[in-house]
Amino acid sequence: QVRLTESGGGLVQAGESLRLSCRTSGINFRIITMRWYRQAPGKQREMVAQITSAGTPSYPEHVKGRFTISRDYARNTVYLQMNALQPEDTSVYYCNMPRDNGDIWGQGTQVTVVS
Which contiguous run of DSSP H or E holds residue 18? Predict the structure, then answer.
C-alpha cells in the first residue's frame, strides 16, 4: 500500500524556518518525481516544489530562494526546508506523488506563521 506521511509543521514567527518531512512507503522511491503543495483557507492548492527522480529541483517564483526541496534515497523521504517564512506562507502543506492513474497525497501538515 502506497503511503505518504508528512511531519514537521508547526507555529513559527515570521522570519523563522521549518523543515517538513514526507516519509514514503509502498513505492519505488528511486524512480518517482515528488512534489510539495500547499493550500491556504479559501484558496486553491498550489505546488511549491518538485524534485525529479534524479534529484533535480524546481520551484515557482514566489518561493524560489526561500524553499529547498531534497530527498534521501536511503530513508525514502522527501524534505522541504522553508526559510524566511512569512504569514502568507500559512497553509496546510501536502506531499504528493504524481501518477497517471491518480496522484497520491499525504494527510497534510499545518504550517502557521505569525508576525
Answer: strand 18-25
Spatial distance between the Cα atoms of 4 and 104, rounded to a whole number of angstroms = 8
Q: Nearest 5°: phi and psi at 33?
A: -75, 140
Question: Which triple of cell numbers denotes residue 17?
Answer: 524556518
Which is nearest to 48 in space by CA: 95, 109, 112?
95
b vs e for 73-108, b when ≥16 Cβ sit within 10 Å of the residue's Cβ? eeebbbbbebeebeeebbbbbbbbbeeeeeebebeb
pLDDT tens series, the chain, 115 aa: 899 999 999 999 999 999 999 999 998 999 999 999 999 999 999 999 999 999 999 999 999 999 999 999 999 999 999 999 999 999 999 999 999 999 999 999 999 999 9
